Amino acid sequence: MQASQLKTASMRDSFSETLYQLAVNDPRVFVLDGDLATSTKIEKVAKECPQKFLQMGIAEQNMLSVAAGLATTGLQPWAVTFAAFMSKRALDQIQVQIAQPKLNVKMIGAYSGLLTGVTGKTHQALEDIAIFRSLANMTVLAPADSVETAKMMEWANQYDGPVYIRLARDNYPILFDDSYVFKPNKGVVLNEGTDLTIISTGTATSRALEAAKILKQNNISSAVVHLPSIKPIDQELIIEMAVKTKAIVTVEEHSIYGGLGGAIAEILAANAPTPIEFVGVKDRNSESASNEALLEKYEISTKYIVEAGQRVNLRKNSDFN
Amino acid sequence: MSSNNTLLEEKSKAARKSLLKVVHHAGAGHIGGPLSAIDVLTALYFKEMNVEPTNPYKVDRDRFVLSKGHSAIGLYAVLAEKGYLDQKELYTFDSLDSRLQGHPDMKILPGIEMSTGSLGQGISAAVGMALGAKVQDQSFRTYCMIGDGESQEGQVWEAAFIASKYELDNLVVILDYNKLQQYGWVGTNTERAVPNDLVEEKWESFGWNVIRIDGHSFEDILEGFRQAKLVKQKPTILIADTVKGKGISFMENNYLWHSRIPTDEELSLALKELDESGDL
């Protein structure tokens, strides 16, 4: 699969359409907005199914606590705001009133990662995976494309418990077709390879696929595993790929601390120690700029995945890996 | 107090005794806040709310959320009086594997409708419950108690705004206005006092139906609940003037009893004031 040649589609449009369908068809579903309906595109629900749309204003802490209260009455609230506000501003509310009591609230972190439409540090979310995966009872998901977004949401809607879904703002290559079945604890092998395995999550997966192609041209055979579910995580597949290829590159649009790379390192350190290179945002604060400029400056573009692949391939063949 | 309320008087006195004994036994917990809250809690569970301890999850039950979760022992004592749990179990309070956590846990103790303890959150959850009733056309009512110190949390006012916006006339919030907080404002004339002036005006300006009551008069409390039901399209707040440490002379209005543990002698004295032999 070659991501650069694939058609792209808007993750937001898919999210909006799927949520609208859920709101129309499932009497339990209500949509809570933190006054970002035009950005997140849940305005479709507001316009076409207004009785299912609850405007909560610019007050995320209250919104998540209200969602908890709604859930106790048998409803299934979908709370939608930017990932930055969901994961940090409303964290205590989520921990105390949603995660610990395992309430049936679906939390959408829109505009996750670094590529948030030139909004900069306040609106980027580089810690949300680390934060959410440290909460007991929480499911943490990050789709790669518009198709997986819809499948994942349909799964989340029939799952009884709290789910965090990390979404991206822009258009991304379509990697999956309609026959794709999302499973919460299963990774997806998108590319076979023997020298190393690139493991990625969310929209970073399309860059991982491009990197595998370039590595191939350099005679490095890279497997690509997409992990749409960071928690629960497909431990079995991670260990299997580590044992098979003996080198791992993790790729995420997230801090290198505590996210996908951290989760994989925890598993491999305990089960199958393997050299790992981490592609993610290092210990630094971000800024507003074009997507291309950000990917380069913060060292998460395809080029950096390729370099990480080359490094880990050398390491695995050295005595001091 | 009117003699019509003899049952309430008996129950609140029994709950006061229990909570004092349990906090003494556990060597942990709060006393001042629960004592200021206990009369309102008693009125809720023994008169106002449609609840059945034997059927704690029935769909049409009224809901209560203790947003000031650190008064948990007061709520547990009232729930025990009501029959949700044995008196004996009260003495597991704060210990390992107990259903009676230091702050309420909705997953393990039937009767607790929302996990609280981090201040400002419970009122928003109560708003969610009342909103849930509205959008599903259900008739249950939601009650929530907040503290005056707690009202320093911005989330309380986020909740106040949304409750008013959605015209939640099925929601009654009770402000336990005991006017003291844990540490307070050092260097001021009234160090431990809660600077909550213009409290009625604040809630009125948020679009609420505001009723001021004596939070230790059952007549007043019940009249407040009755009046709340008459007002449509507005949530109601009962601003309950209360006394921190109410019922025990040496604890009343003394901030030291926010979370102090009584000695054997102090417990004995306190129980005597509540007409119980002070023998431990």
TrEMBL record, chain A:
CDD domains: TPP_PYR_DXS_TK_like (cd07033). Signal peptide: none annotated. Its cofactor is thiamine diphosphate. InterPro entries: PDH/Transketolase (IPR051157), THDP-binding (IPR029061), Transketo_C/PFOR_II (IPR009014), Transketolase-like_Pyr-bd (IPR005475), Transketolase_C (IPR033248). Keywords: Thiamine pyrophosphate. Residues 9-174 form the Transketolase-like pyrimidine-binding domain. It comes from the Bacteria. Belongs to the transketolase family. This is Transketolase family protein. It comes from Psychrobacillus soli. The lineage of its organism: Bacteria, Bacillati, Bacillota, Bacilli, Bacillales.
